[in-house]
Amino acid sequence: MCQKIAIIVGAGSAGLTAAYELLKRTDIYPLYLRKAMSWEEFSEL
Ligand SMILES: Cc1cc2nc3c(=O)[nH]c(=O)nc-3n(C[C@H](O)[C@H](O)[C@H](O)COP(=O)(O)OP(=O)(O)OC[C@H]3O[C@@H](n4cnc5c(N)ncnc54)[C@H](O)[C@@H]3O)c2cc1C
């Protein structure tokens, strides 16, 4: 049987909660995509 995968775009609170609930309650494997930070954004931290 094929592994079911959900692709979640955005690793904010909604995306991470969705990934957690999928892992906890289903056999669907969450794959979340996180936006890369630019050097300008990084240097402003
Ligand atoms: C200054 C400030 C203070 C706050 N303080 C509080 C507080 O004290 N308590 C509280 O309950 N709430 C607070 N909030 C609100 C809270 O942050 C939001 O309600 C919550 O983060 C929304 O979650 P979200 O997952 O929907 O969105 P986000 O947290 O915005 O997550 C979205 C994610 O998607 C990513 N993303 C965007 N575009 C792409 C793309 N193209 N590809 C991949 N990833 C992408 C972003 O980088 C981000 O990580 C505050 C908000 C702000 C702005």
From TrEMBL:
Name of the protein this chain belongs to: FAD-binding protein
Alphabetical list of SUPFAM superfamilies matching this protein: FAD/NAD(P)-binding domain
InterPro entries, sorted: FAD/NAD-bd_sf
